[in-house]
Each structure stands twice: as structure tokens, then as C-alpha cells.
Automatic annotation (TrEMBL), chain A:
Species lineage: Bacteria, Bacillati, Actinomycetota, Actinomycetes, Micrococcales
Keyword terms: Cell membrane, Membrane, Transmembrane, Transmembrane helix
Organism: Kocuria salsicia
Protein name: APC family permease
Family matches, as InterPro entries: AA/rel_permease1, APC_superfamily
Membrane topology: Multi-pass membrane protein
């Protein structure tokens, strides 16, 4: 009696699952970025940080992401079957750093889950208000108990779907992505028309200076802007990891990545310019510096820009954040699964529900933690969405940075094998990783100031700092606890010198 | 455990035979993924394997991700962990198989469990696929989940269903064959005879008579059904010991519930006439029987030859 698994490594994956063409890959990348949701949350805080240099930051902020993505691709090709930040960093730097890298990813996903749910709640009530024509319904979103309750319902729904292992199909993705893009372009065109007709509230004309990254006032502002733009581009690198399923695998992933990058940068540029020139930087009304609307600019701008069609924008943001909310559950659940599996967290996190083949315990744990976190933040913070986005940007900088350096170290023996290898294994990830970690440190230092971000604070220290650094310190505590409970993971000798052939 | 060997050449049916068939070894595919109903299915598979001297291919289907599943932020593939888990489940399963039954474990990947099981049936040239009924806690013994439902509509081989919480028996000793009151029961009778003949199991032809559907005198209806069954029994021949039973009750549900089912038996039923060639299609009566049946059930696909004889 024996158990026999199918072909070594189970490489039949691509055969049965159908292949993904170039356009399909772009759709997947777009859906992971969720542009409607991302812009809605990040435009305000970014404009607050860098003023009119928003377009410049959108262009520049992309570069460290691109550099790090090169490292991601290398690691993914070398270790395709265990491709998590957690396992990669463990293999490169040993268990302790690996553990913290995994924790950073977890923290980022918990933060983004609360933010997604928060945005979904806002647009949910906004949409009901628009449909029923009763604007007072939209105010329900700022009623704390109602808000928290609605959010918990959304969270539970997304958790249930992900627990059951339900997956989005191709058709749904196409519709969601196409809808977002059409509505965002519609919004932008409408905004530009208003500007041209002089009916825009802010009414600024596009200037070349907006594209000059060196025009940003200070390093702090620059770092804050980049952390935020890291958040808005977060997710596109998924295109690099779908190569197995892509038609014509040798060329498509590269082209798909480029196509995704190009489309998303163009889209962000158009929407960013539209918002900036329509709304201006005033601190009243729809001005981007009005703290009332900063955490959620689309909610405020949709009506003035699109008129009755504003409903569609709400629908786009709502569907985009709801779809992301659901797919985002998969990520922390799988990271927890991997950590539980390797003994870096209690074993029950590694448990797989037989019926749905999903990491049941880990999924529920992720939902519970995000819900608690959201409830806490909603009560403590004046501007939950803003603070979570900023802290999220920090966390992404941290774990992306660590992962990029893991790539550099993991491939240390092949740095100088060829020019290509030098660029892919040393130069790009090292530069990208250092940049991101630098922005992480800069943002952390700045965020100690209680006036940072939305201006929420606890005991004279900025809430964003407490969130960002607090979460990492909590990670250290959990890590040490786990060390004393089960040392096997921390004593494991990872093969840090494993060197697969890569060009 | 095996019944009398099939004398060569003494066959009227073509080689599409199912629960029993010609000389070689039979292989049964068991859908197994570590949960309770998989264990029900395994127990049934073992009992059937002993009765029909078959080998078991215990298959764990891992669902592969839709390529369009957006994982945001991207994390890597956790399939190796799932695969390891699947191996553990299969080892557990193999440990419960008695020594005199040959069994092998396999892990396969597919977009859906049903499609994976059907592919496994083709791969192992299996003659039967065994699954457990869905585990609706408060519902009937059998509630058909999406996997079973797909199998019951697409499988080209018989599908054996274990009722929820099936305890298992050493070996299946008795076959019930559900004979419908409409014509077209040739396939099921042929199968039943074949199976009984090969295995030496006792064969019971049963018809269900819900009295709420009977117009006029009940006794007459019962007698009519019984005559029907008797003539079917005669058709089946002398080599196999056959008994007949008319199961009646106020409703179909009551009839099924009040019948004294032997625990070491399975019920063979045919497919609806809606089924395509060599396809299973669960008819309405059958699916209602299924809901209240306390013993395992095997649904046979509609055979090619039957279509021909009917038309």
C-alpha cells in the first residue's frame, strides 16, 4: 500500500486550469491593484503630503516597486512552491528575520483588510443614499456603532466566502476590472470638461512643475508620498508570479508585467491630474486639503464631477473594495498557514479544513484580528482610513524591503556571473530594498509627531507610529513567545546557500 | 468472499458491465479528502471491494487555484503544504483498509473535485466511483452536495453513495434492485443479475408503491406491482436466488422509511430516462428515495444498449 502523487512537483497546474493570455494577465494585475479602491483611499493623503507634486510622486513611487519586483521574480522562479515572504526570508536570513518578514506581511494585510472594509462601509451607505435620494443615509457611515457593525458583517461575509474556498472566475474579474476602468476614465473626462468650461470648483491648469519630483518640499514629504504610492501600486507584481499559467510562458509574463505597469501608471496619472485640476488644493469644499474629505476623496468628488452618474463611481469603488476584501483574506490566511506549517506559529494555524481545502483556522483568525483591529481604530482614531493607509504604506515598505534584501543575499554567489545576473540579483533588488527601508525609517521617525497623518495621537505620540512600530514590536513579543513554546522552527537550519541555476 | 467464478462465454451482456464484470480486477475509485463523509465512502468502498473482489484506488483531489484568483497582496503557492496534508489523509485512509483488500492512494489536482474524480475513473479504468453524501447536519441521510450532484449527472460509471454516518460492514451481503413501475428496467435487471451472479449475493427486487399515488383499491395495485416484480424475477433466471418485495407506505418517504432494510446491503437504482448515452442522471423518484434511504445506494448509468432496445 502506498500513496503516489502525480507527476513530480505537480506541474500539471497550468494544463487543467486553462491558460491566461496577455490581456488576461493584465486583468489579473489590475484586479489585484483594485484601482478604484486604492485611489479612493490614497489620493487624499498623498496630496496632503506632496501637494501638487502628486503626479511626480505617482511616477517616482513606482520605481522602488519595480526594482523590488525584479527580486520577487527571481525568488519566485527559484522557489516557486514556497513563495512567501516568510519562507524566502527564512531561507536567506534564517528564522528570526524570516519570522519578522512574515509578520510584516501579515500586519500589512490586517491593515489593508480594515481599510478595505472601512471604504466598503462608506461607499455602501453612500450608494444607498444616492439610490434612495436621501443624503442623510450617507451619514450613517460616520455613526460609530453602525459603522463598526456594518464592517463586521462585511468582514464575516468575506471570511465565510474565503473559508469555503470560493474563487472568483475569469468572467467576474473581467467585468469588475472593465467596470472600474470605464468609470474612472469617465470620472476623469468629466472632471477635465468641468475644468475646461470653468465650472470646476478648484480649477487649476496642469503645469509641468507637477511632474518634477525634486520640487517636493522635504525628504519627509517625499518619503510619505512614496510610502503611499507603494500602497497604490501594491499588487501588480502578482503578474510576475502567474507565469506558469500564461500562454507562451517565456515571453508573456514580462510583457504582461510591462503592459500592466503601463496601463496602471497611465490610469493613475489621468485620474490624479483630473482630481488635482478639478478640486485644487483648497482646504474647504472639495479642495484636496480639506481634512473632511481627504480620507475618501471620491465620496466627496463624485457628485460635483459626475452629477447623477456619481452612483456608478460609488458602485465601482464598492465592488472593487468588496472584491479585494474577499481576495485579501486569502493572503494572510495562507501566510498564517505557512507559518503554522513550519512551526513558526502554533500548529493549529497550519490546519487545513478537509472539506474546503482552505486554511480554516488561519482564515477565521485573520478575520477576528482584523475586526478587532478595525473596532479599536474606529474608536481611537479620528480618521481611521487615513491612518491605516499610512501605516499600511510603512508596513509594505518594511516587508518588501526585507524581501528584496533576502533576494540579494540568497543569490549572493551569482552576483557577478553575468551582467543580467548582476542587475537582477544584486543591483535592482538591493537598490529597491534599500530605498523602501529608507522610506520606512523616515516615515517611522516622522510619524512620531502627533500631528502626522490625520493628527490622531495617543499620549503625545502619533497614532501612525504607534500602529506601525507597535505592530512590529508586538511581532517580536509573539516571536519570542513562540520561541519558548516551540523551538524547532528557530533551530531549523535553513539552506541559505542553496543555489539554483538562474540567469 | 468471491462468489462463483463467471464461466467463460456464458455472457449475454456486453463488456459494459459495472459492479460485476469480466475476469480482470475491478477498480473502484474512492473520493477521499479526510473528512467524515470521505470516511463513510471509504467504509462503503471496503465493503464493496470485499463483496466483489475489487481493488481500491483512494483518490484525494486537490483543487487548483483559478488562475483568475487574485491574491492581494501576492503570496506564494501553498500547494506543497496541501499536498503533504493530502498524503497524510491518504495514509490515514490506507491504515483503515483491512489487509485482504488491495488499496492504493493517489493525489490528483483538478479545478473541481468532481472533474478530478472523473479523470481518475478514466485513468484507472475504474468501474465504480464511491463518494459520501453531503453532511447536512439536520437534513436527510443523503443530501446531495455539489460534487455528488456533478457525479450523478456526468459520470459514465456507476456512482456509489454512502449515507451520512455509514458505519460500514465487513462485506456487502445483499443487493436490492429498485425496479420502477414504468417499463425500461432492463438495464437495472441485467446489472443486478450480473452482480448477484458474480458475487453470490442475495438479490431482492423491490418496487416502491406510495399509496397516495394509487387510484382505486390499494390491494389491487399492490398485486399488480407484485406480478410485475415476479415476472421480472423470472426474467432474471434460475441461476440466481431472487426474492421480490413491494414496499408500500402512505407516501414514498414512509414507504422507504418503513421498509426493513438489511444493514449489510446496497440498493441498485437506474438512471432517469433523461440520461444521455452511458450517462448517469438521477431521476426525481430516485432522488426522493435517496433522501430517506438508510443504506448505501449505487446509481447506474443508462447503458447504450438500453437506449437501443427502448427506441
Amino acid at each position: 500500500m502506498s500513496v503516489e502523487t502525480e507527476a513530480e512537483g505537480g506541474t500539471d497546474k497550468g494544463l487543467s486550469s486553462g491558460s491566461v493570455g496577455l490581456l488576461g494577465a493584465v486583468v489579473i494585475g489590475m484586479s489585484c491593484i483594485a484601482p478604484a479602491y486604492t485611489l479612493s483611499g490614497a489620493l487624499g493623503p498623498t496630496a496632503a503630503a506632496v501637494d501638487t507634486h502628486l503626479p511626480a510622486i505617482f511616477l517616482v513611487g513606482f520605481i522602488p516597486m519595480l526594482l523590488v519586483a525584479v527580486g520577487y521574480r527571481q525568488l519566485n522562479r527559484a522557489m516557486p512552491d514556497s513563495g512567501t515572504t516568510f519562507t524566502w526570508t527564512s531561507k536567506a536570513f534564517g528564522p528570526w528575520v524570516g519570522w519578522m518578514g512574515g509578520w510584516g506581511l501579515l500586519a500589512a494585510t490586517i491593515l489593508v483588510l480594515s481599510n478595505l472594509a472601512g471604504i466598503a462601509v462608506e461607499f455602501f451607505y453612500l450608494m444607498i443614499a444616492q439610490v434612495t435620494g436621501r443624503p442623510e443615509v450617507a451619514d450613517l457611515a460616520s455613526n460609530v456603532p453602525v459603522n463598526i457593525l456594518t464592517c463586521l458583517v462585511f468582514m464575516a461575509g468575506a471570511c465565510w466566502i474565503s473559508y469555503r474556498g470560493v474563487e472568483t472566475t475569469e468572467k467576474v474579474q473581467w467585468v469588475l476590472v472593465a467596470f472600474q476602468i470605464i468609470i474612472l476614465l469617465w470620472f476623469s473626462v468629466a472632471a477635465f470638461v468641468h475644468v475646461a468650461n470653468g465650472t470646476a470648483e478648484g480649477g487649476m491648469h496642469i503645469q509641468a512643475e507637477w511632474f518634477n519630483p525634486l520640487g517636493v518640499g522635504s525628504l519627509s514629504a517625499f518619503a510619505a508620498g512614496v510610502s503611499l504610492s507603494v500602497f497604490i501600486y501594491w499588487g501588480w507584481d502578482v503578474v510576475l508570479t502567474i507565469n506558469e499559467e500564461t500562454k507562451g510562458a517565456a515571453t508573456t509574463p514580462g510583457r504582461a508585467a510591462l503592459a500592466t505597469i503601463f496601463s496602471i501608471v497611465v490610469l493613475y496619472m489621468v485620474v490624479g491630474l483630473a482630481v488635482l485640476s478639478f478640486a485644487g488644493l483648497g482646504d474647504t469644499g472639495v479642495g484636496l486639503n480639506n481634512p473632511e474629505i481627504q480620507e475618501n476623496v471620491f465620496a466627496a468628488l463624485a457628485g460635483p464631477v459626475m452629477g447623477p452618474a456619481a452612483l456608478l463611481l460609488s458602485l465601482a469603488v464598492l465592488s472593487s473594495s468588496a472584491a479585494s476584501l474577499q481576495s485579501t483574506f486569502v493572503s494572510p490566511a495562507r501566510t498564517l498557514l505557512a507559518m503554522g506549517y513550519y512551526g513558526a506559529l502554533p500548529r493549529r494555524f497550519g490546519r487545513i479544513t478537509p472539506r474546503f481545502q482552505s486554511p480554516g483556522f488561519a482564515t477565521v483568525a485573520a478575520a477576528v484580528v482584523s475586526s478587532l483591529f478595525y473596532t479599536f481604530m474606529r474608536i481611537v482614531s479620528e480618521d481611521v482610513l487615513w491612518d491605516t493607509i499610512t501605516a499600511l504604506g510603512m508596513m509594505v515598505c518594511f516587508y518588501y524591503g526585507v524581501t528584496a534584501l533576502a533576494c540579494v543575499w540568497y543569490f549572493r554567489r551569482s552576483w557577478f556571473k553575468s551582467v543580467k545576473s548582476f542587475l537582477n540579483n544584486l543591483f535592482a533588488p538591493l537598490l529597491g530594498g534599500l530605498l523602501l527601508l529608507m522610506f520606512f525609517v523616515q516615515t517611522s521617525v516622522d510619524s512620531m509627531d502627533p500631528a502626522y497623518g490625520s493628527g490622531s495621537q495617543i499620549g503625545g505620540v502619533g497614532l501612525v507610529f504607534i500602529l506601525g512600530i507597535g505592530i512590529l514590536l508586538l511581532g517580536v513579543v509573539v516571536m519570542v513567545t513562540q520561541y519558548f513554546r516551540n523551538r524547532s522552527f528557530f533551530q531549523e537550519r535553513f539552506e541559505t546557500t542553496e543555489l539554483p541555476v538562474l540567469d | 468472499m468471491t462468489g462463483p467464478a463467471t464461466p467463460a462465454g456464458d455472457r449475454e451482456t456486453p463488456a459494459t458491465s459495472t459492479t460485476a464484470g469480466q475476469g480482470g480486477t475491478f477498480r473502484y475509485v474512492i473520493g477521499y479528502n479526510g473528512d467524515k463523509r470521505s470516511k463513510d465512502a471509504l467504509r462503503l468502498g471496503i465493503a464493496l471491494a470485499k463483496a466483489f473482489n475489487a481493488e481500491l484506488e483512494i483518490v484525494c483531489i486537490l483543487r487548483s487555484d483559478e488562475p483568475y484568483l487574485p491574491v492581494y497582496p501576492p503570496v506564494g503557492d501553498v500547494t506543497p503544504m496541501l499536498r503533504r496534508q493530502a498524503n497524510n489523509w491518504l495514509h490515514e485512509a490506507l491504515d483503515t483498509v483491512p489487509d485482504d483488500v488491495v488499496a492504493r492512494g493517489h493525489v490528483r489536482t483538478s479545478l473541481s473535485v468532481a472533474a478530478g474524480l472523473l479523470a481518475a475513473v478514466a485513468e484507472f479504468e475504474a468501474t465504480l466511483v464511491v463518494v459520501g453524501a453531503a453532511s447536512g447536519k439536520y437534513t436527510a441521510k443523503f443530501s446531495v452536495g455539489p460534487v455528488t450532484d456533478a457525479l450523478l449527472h456526468r459520470a459514465g460509471v456507476p456512482v456509489a453513495l454512502a449515507p451520512r454516518g455509514y458505519k460500514g460492514v465487513t462485506a456487502i451481503k445483499r443487493l436490492y434492485a429498485g425496479i420502477g413501475m414504468r417499463p425500461g428496467a432492463h438495464r437495472i435487471m441485467r446489472e443486478a443479475r450480473e452482480a448477484a451472479y458474480r458475487s453470490g449475493l442475495e438479490l431482492d427486487l423491490v418496487s416502491f408503491l406510495p399509496l397516495d399515488h394509487v387510484q382505486g383499491e390499494a390491494t389491487e395495485a399492490i398485486a399488480q406491482v407484485e406480478r410485475n416484480l415476479q415476472s421480472s424475477a423470472k426474467e432474471i433466471g434460475e441461476h440466481v436466488p431472487v426474492s421480490v418485495q413491494v414496499v408500500r407506505g402512505k407516501t414514498l418517504k414512509k414507504a422507504v422509511a418503513e421498509m426493513d432494510w438489511q444493514p449489510d446491503a446496497v440498493l441498485l437504482v437506474g438512471s432517469s430516462r433523461l440520461a444521455g448515452e452511458r450517462q448517469i442522471f438521477l431521476g426525481t423518484t430516485t432522488s426522493r428515495i435517496l433522501r430517506h434511504l438508510p443504506i448505501p445506494m449505487i446509481v447506474l448509468p443508462l447503458g447504450t444498449s438500453e437506449k437501443e432496445t427502448e427506441s
